[in-house]
């Protein structure tokens, strides 16, 4: 390999106690010569030639070693040697500063003139392409440059680079970025996956990349994007992660989109950002959704999001990116740059890098273009194959003429595979099983080979510039060895496909075992990756355990879609597992996680119910299953929302029995809560209070907060639920105490779902008290929570309560529309719990609007639904509403009959507050009897906590008016 030529402007520089004289190859300290090997000396000269400026690793490799035939580790060694000679501490540098993951900077202040090009010439040199081998693409580079200029001006630019394999997408990106200098740049890659792809993988890689180069980003993540902070676990302590998970329990995936939008807006206020995501044809759906969101987001953002993909694969495989391309193109929200093959002129330019005489030979260039179709990777491979500096032009031309024409790139790769030695092929085959990127340690363990010998083999393959390169995307610290990666994904793909199935199976088993060992040393190995390897290794039980772990991790990271994908694959694989307790246990885990995820994605429909039922049936075989709490509480809660109250009580009773057998207080708590919720909806006031009081006695010492079973704090939930029953019982002062306890604890916990539950229960009380002003305020608070945190629960309820308040505040028609739209959406998701009450709100709004007939139709629907579900909690109010509609229709007798039925229903429900409402209305009627008034007087004396309420005042006025003078 030829050494670099001497620089035309040699460095002559004094800094601190050193003098550097490049022309005389001399470094001295205080006048005494310092021994320094040639490579570190040249490295020092290159750095000193650009004082205060970042010199990238690529630029240093080119300048010092002449070409990229060596790895980053060689550069690091030279830097280390140089620092030792200079006495420089990398943690507190005086001379050479490390710019994490990007390069180095000479920071010593010169104390005499520096011989180098003028400033204008330096600026020009910095803007020229860093790679002398870059050919063509002038128009494409110009388009990218214009997009970056727009981004600099505050106009977000979403740009897609499309082309076929080997067309030069990555090369163009590298060239373009190299010309931009020291900018904020974050890069991530999509990887070929098996089954569901890891959500936001390239974006998370890019964020990690940016965090390492910009120490201000983690703080910004904490402030505006906590859901994304959770995806980067090394940025938080275990305690911080636990607190974040609790705070974000119940948050929907949509929150992640909004947070990323805000993060990009805030970050780019300080400096423009280049976000690069490569190979979108392998992207997960979440990343595509995020691109769509960012492209449509309004406002000033100094962002350019540059992505690449294989056009044919996106179109042919109906990738979600295909439809997005069409939508965004119609709205002119992105720009697409399509790369074409090289022209004959560009092929000639490429050949000129190796031989100017051959480049002028039109016949040779034309023949090379015809054999390669101008595909750059093809051109490079064929050129390397036929050209040898030792041969003359005629020999090279003859070799090209005699070369068999490969049908495609895969055929070229087959040719290279055939030229591998046995040891090299074994190593690369194992690497291909690992993936596009691999660690030497993993391959060494899998093949049971010495680490140093595998490293040497990888270095040799890298120097050949065909198979491998060294990744520069995941280096966290200078001391960590970088992984290797295949130069082109096609090389890895073809090699993997050409490996016999039996050998692939064996290698997946060995790689999986090696990754397990890596994991025990603290290296981050994803459970989904292990699941894939053991799945392909035909070891279903091991694979299933990792699928379960990966599915649970997906839920923790707000990715229910991924969880569903993982559990679907695992439940198919389950058929290959031997029958027995372990298989049943895994099936319970997987089906429960699928049920929870389906609930988040699809609501309470058949998908979630079927999954929970599958796990529920198997629980008898594994009654001690660790996920039984999540299963039974989740299933009971889902059945309650669906209005399947009898089955919900059956699940609660089973949970109670299991908790008694195992003395499991958390499971007993879940059973009590489900019992309380169902009995409340069925109108059993005293029974509900008993269950809730029992649950609260369990919850207080447990002090759970939120966890995988309870998305909202049980104590807040129970205080609020109990307050509702105390109001129904006429114990208003006691209800206020519990409501205040719920508010205080919710404020202390600062957890969105818990806040929402507290507001939900308070609004139910205020509706029963008839306080429309407070209901409107609470509904608006709930709407803000739902919007900010993407909480699926509450999305409809806050709208129908706002409609109820609007109807009572003078806008009944608008209120009715709000109520009805929210109700349709709610029931459309399969949720029928509380349906009779909401239909009652709609009927009341129509009555206030003066449309008695329509109100009667709505009310009859409410009665029908309540009867069908066995839902009686709101029946007294429905009967009073029937009385009001009958009076408005001129049917007073029907009205008084409805009121008397309401009185009977309140007594059956053991709900004195509701009975007081019905008796007051009854006694205000001219046909009220002395017995009715006596019943009212007796009841009001039994409810001292109602004193001061408007209802109590009306009651006492009626009683006084009835007394003889």
From TrEMBL:
Keywords: ATP-binding, DNA-binding, Nucleotide-binding. Pfam families: AAA_16, Trans_reg_C. GO terms for molecular function: adenylate cyclase activity; ATP binding; DNA binding. GO terms for biological process: phosphorelay signal transduction system; regulation of DNA-templated transcription. Residues 10-108 bind DNA. Residues 112-132 are annotated as: Disordered. Residues 10-108 form the OmpR/PhoB-type domain. GO terms for cellular component: cytoplasm. Transmembrane segments: none annotated. InterPro entries: AAA_16 (IPR041664), OmpR/PhoB-type_DNA-bd (IPR001867), P-loop_NTPase (IPR027417), Sig_transdc_resp-reg_C-effctor (IPR016032), TPR-like_helical_dom_sf (IPR011990), WH-like_DNA-bd_sf (IPR036388). CDD domains: trans_reg_C. PANTHER family: GUANYLATE CYCLASE DOMAIN-CONTAINING PROTEIN, TESTICULAR SOLUBLE ADENYLYL CYCLASE. This is Predicted ATPase. It comes from Pseudomonas jessenii.
């Amino acid at each position: 390999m030829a050494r670099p030529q001497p620089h035309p402007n040699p460095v002559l520089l004094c800094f601190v106690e050193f003098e550097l004289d490049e022309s005389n190859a001399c470094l001295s300290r205080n006048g005494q010569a310092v021994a320094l090997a040639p490579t570190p000396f040249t490295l020092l000269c290159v750095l000193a030639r650009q004082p205060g400026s970042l010199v990238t690793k690529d630029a240093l490799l080119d300048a010092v070693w002449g070409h990229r035939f060596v790895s980053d580790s060689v550069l690091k060694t030279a830097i280390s040697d140089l620092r030792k000679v200079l006495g420089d501490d990398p943690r507190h540098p005086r001379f050479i500063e490390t710019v994490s993951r990007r390069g180095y900077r000479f920071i010593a202040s010169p104390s005499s003139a520096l011989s180098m090009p003028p400033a204008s010439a330096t600026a020009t040199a910095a803007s020229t392409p860093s790679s002398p081998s870059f050919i063509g693409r002038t128009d494409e580079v110009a388009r990218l440059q214009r997009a970056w200029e727009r981004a600099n001006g505050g106009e977000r630019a979403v740009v897609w680079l499309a082309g076929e394999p080997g067309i030069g997408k990555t090369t163009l990106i590298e060239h373009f970025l190299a010309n931009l200098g020291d900018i904020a740049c974050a890069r991530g890659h999509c990887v070929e996956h098996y089954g569901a792809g890891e959500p936001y993988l390239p974006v998370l890689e890019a964020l990690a990349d940016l965090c390492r180069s910009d120490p201000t980003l983690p703080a910004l993540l904490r402030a505006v994007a906590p859901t994304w902070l959770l995806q980067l676990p090394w940025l938080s302590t275990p305690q911080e992660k636990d607190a974040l998970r609790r705070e974000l329990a119940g948050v929907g995936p949509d929150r992640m989109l909004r947070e990323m939008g805000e993060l990009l807006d805030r970050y780019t206020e300080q400096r423009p950002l280049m976000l690069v995501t490569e190979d979108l044809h392998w992207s997960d759906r979440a990343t595509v959704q995020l691109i769509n969101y960012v492209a449509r987001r309004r406002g000033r953002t100094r962002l350019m999001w540059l992505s690449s993909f294989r056009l044919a694969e996106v179109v042919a495989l109906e990738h979600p990116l295909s439809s997005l391309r069409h939508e965004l193109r119609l709205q002119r929200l992105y720009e697409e740059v399509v790369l074409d093959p090289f022209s004959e002129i560009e092929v000639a330019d490429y050949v000129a890098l190796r031989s100017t005489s051959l480049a002028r030979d039109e016949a040779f260039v034309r023949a090379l273009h015809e054999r390669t179709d101008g595909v750059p990777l093809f051109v490079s491979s064929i050129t390397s194959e036929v050209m040898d500096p030792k041969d003359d032009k005629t020999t090279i031309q003859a070799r090209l003429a005699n070369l068999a024409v490969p049908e495609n790139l895969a055929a070229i790769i087959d040719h290279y595979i055939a030229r591998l030695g046995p040891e090299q092929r074994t190593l690369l085959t194992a690497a291909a099983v690992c993936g596009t990127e691999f660690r030497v340690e993993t391959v060494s363990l899998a093949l049971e080979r010495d680490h140093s010998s595998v490293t040497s083999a990888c270095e040799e393959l890298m120097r050949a510039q065909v198979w491998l390169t060294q990744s520069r995307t995941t280096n966290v610290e200078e001391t960590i060895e970088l992984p290797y990666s295949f130069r082109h994904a096609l090389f890895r793909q073809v090699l993997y496909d050409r490996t016999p199935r039996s050998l692939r199976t064996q290698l997946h088993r060995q790689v999986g075992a090696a990754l397990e060992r890596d994991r025990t040393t603290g290296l981050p190995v994803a459970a989904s990756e292990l699941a894939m390897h053991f799945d392909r290794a035909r070891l279903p039980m091991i694979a299933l355990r990792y699928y379960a772990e990966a599915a649970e991790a997906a839920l923790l990271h707000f990715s229910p879609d991924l969880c569903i994908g993982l559990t679907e694959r695992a439940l198919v694989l389950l058929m290959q597992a031997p029958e027995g307790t372990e298989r049943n246990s895994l099936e319970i885990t997987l089906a429960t996680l699928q049920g929870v995820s389906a609930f988040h994605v699809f609501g309470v429909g058949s998908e979630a119910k079927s999954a929970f039922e599958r796990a529920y049936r198997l629980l008898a075989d594994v009654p001690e299953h660790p996920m039984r709490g999540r299963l039974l509480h989740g299933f009971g809660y889902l059945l309650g929302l669906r209005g399947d109250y009898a089955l919900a009580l059956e699940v609660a009773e089973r949970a109670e029995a299991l908790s008694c057998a195992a003395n499991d207080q958390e499971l007993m708590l879940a059973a009590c809560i489900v019992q309380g919720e169902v009995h409340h909806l069925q109108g059993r006031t005293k029974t509900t209070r008993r269950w809730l009081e029992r649950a609260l006695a369990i919850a207080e010492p447990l002090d759970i907060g939120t966890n995988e079973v309870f998305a909202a704090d049980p104590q807040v939930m129970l205080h609020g639920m109990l307050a509702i029953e105390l109001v129904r019982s006429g114990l208003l002062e006691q209800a206020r105490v519990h409501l205040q306890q719920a508010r205080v604890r919710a404020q202390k916990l600062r957890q969105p779902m818990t806040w929402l539950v507290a507001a939900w229960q308070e609004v139910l009380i205020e509706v029963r008290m008839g306080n429309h002003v407070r209901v409107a305020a609470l509904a608006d608070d709930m709407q803000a929570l739902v919007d900010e945190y993407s909480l699926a629960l509450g999305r409809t309820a806050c709208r129908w309560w706002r409609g109820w308040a609007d109807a009572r505040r003078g806008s009944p028609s608008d209120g009715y529309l709000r109520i009805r739209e929210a109700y349709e959406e709610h029931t459309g998701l399969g949720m029928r719990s509380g349906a009779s009450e909401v239909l009652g709100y709609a009927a009341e709004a129509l009555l206030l609007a003066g449309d008695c007939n329509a109100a009667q139709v709505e009310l009859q629907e409410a009665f029908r639904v309540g009867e069908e579900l066995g839902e009686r909690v709101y029946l007294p109010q429905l009967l009073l509403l029937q009385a009001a509609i009958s009076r408005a229709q001129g049917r007073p007798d029907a009205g008084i009959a409805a009121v008397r039925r309401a009185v009977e229903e309140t007594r059956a429900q053991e709900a004195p507050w509701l009975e007081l409402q019905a008796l007051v209305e009854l006694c205000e009627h001219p046909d009220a009897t002395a017995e009715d008034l006596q019943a009212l007087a007796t009841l009001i004396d039994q409810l001292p906590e109602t004193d001061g309420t408007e209802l109590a005042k009306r009651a006492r006025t009626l009683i006084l008016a009835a007394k003889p003078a």
